[in-house]
Amino acid sequence: MSTRAHWMRRANEALGELSTSPCPFSAFGTAVVNHTGTNGLGDLICLGVNENRQTGNPALHGEIAAIQNCTDILTDPQGRFRLTPLKALNAFADLTLYTNAESCPMCASAIRWAGFKEYVYGTSIDTLVRNGWGQIRISSHEVFQASSDLSSSTRLIGGVLASETNPFFLWQFNSSYPCPGGCSRSEATGRCRAIKRDEL
To answer: Where is the CMP/dCMP-type deaminase domain (predicted)?
Structure first.
């Protein structure tokens, strides 16, 4: 469990590293790790965060962004792996995807199509819905059951470190919940925004 907790925290940390704000509204972070043939905690391959608002691409959820980032890293001719596209596709079978919230059906399907060895999430879709997040209410478990015809199998592990991932999704629709560090709630809009230097 300590290994799982380490990488779930790393998925959370991706938000601070890849987001343009200390309080990104869609605080969905992902880390992809190789636990196969490695000693200790494993080998980080790539990170990803939800980039809808930065790019205008509605499909660029944290998991999709991470899969794209991993593909770029695995196939980079100057990088450490230098895999062909076919070998990169096959490499996902050795990797574990950690995401701080349960994947929507689009991302859960992408995880299954990629053939990840494992998929580990923190906050559940039910928790997101209870806290005001609009969701397509199809659980990852349902997607995995419906994908049994695929040649690969992916181990699904849910609820890892939910006590630490849940707070990333509690402030967006609840004006009484405190904003993340480095942010304050705007009196005009009621939304959390980054504190400017002149406000410190």
So the answer is: 3-136
